[in-house]
Amino acid sequence: QVQLVESGGGSVQAAGSLRLSCAASGRTYSSYCMAWFRQAPWKEREGVATINRNNSPMYADSVKGRFTISQDNAKNTLYLQMHSLKPEYTAMYYCAAKYSGAWYCGFYGYDYWGQGTQVTVSS
Hints:
Helix content: under 10%
Number of strands: 11
Number of helices: 0
Strand content: over 45%
Radius of gyration: 14 Å
């Protein structure tokens, strides 16, 4: 089993920046996808970004140019660097993982989830 633990959330002002981290432990996979999702109150969960074993990132159109996904394999840690934050980005942010041999990860089929970390952007 893979355990994921997010950290780095908090409260920031609009136009500010924040970096989220997701520490992974447990079984490793030769082929995998990692992803970030977010969910605002009373709204559906939204995919944010993905990254594969070869470090190829993919972003939702809504966050392109504002968020950067990356990973440190030596530390088994996934990151989400967020800049130019807006109040509408306020949400619970989750990291997720799945085994996948596909090059394109997408936002479906993730089996392992973190507990979430809250991001609040004030105006």
